[in-house]
Amino acid sequence: MTISKEILDELLKGVDRPEDLLGDAGLMKELKIKLMERMLGAELTAHLGYEDGESAPPTQLNRRNGTSAKVLKGQDGELPVAIPRDRDSSFEPELVKKGQTRIDGMDDKIIGLYAAGLTVRDIQAHLLDLYGLRVSPDLISRVTDAVLDEVREWQSRALDRMYPIVLFDALRVKIRDADSRTVKNKAVYVALGVTRDGQREVLGLWIAENEGAKFWLSVMNELKNRGLQDILIAVVDGLKGFPEAITAAFPEAMVQTCMVHLVRHSLNFCSWKDRKIVAADLRRIYSAPSAEMAEAELDAFEEKWAGKYASIAPAWRRTWAEVIPFFGFDPAIRKIIYTTNAIESLNRVIRKSIKTRGSFPTDEAATKLIYLAIRKFEKDGRNVREWFAARNQFAIMFGERFDA
Question: Which GO terms fall under biological process for this protein (predicted)?
Answer without folding.
Answer: DNA transposition
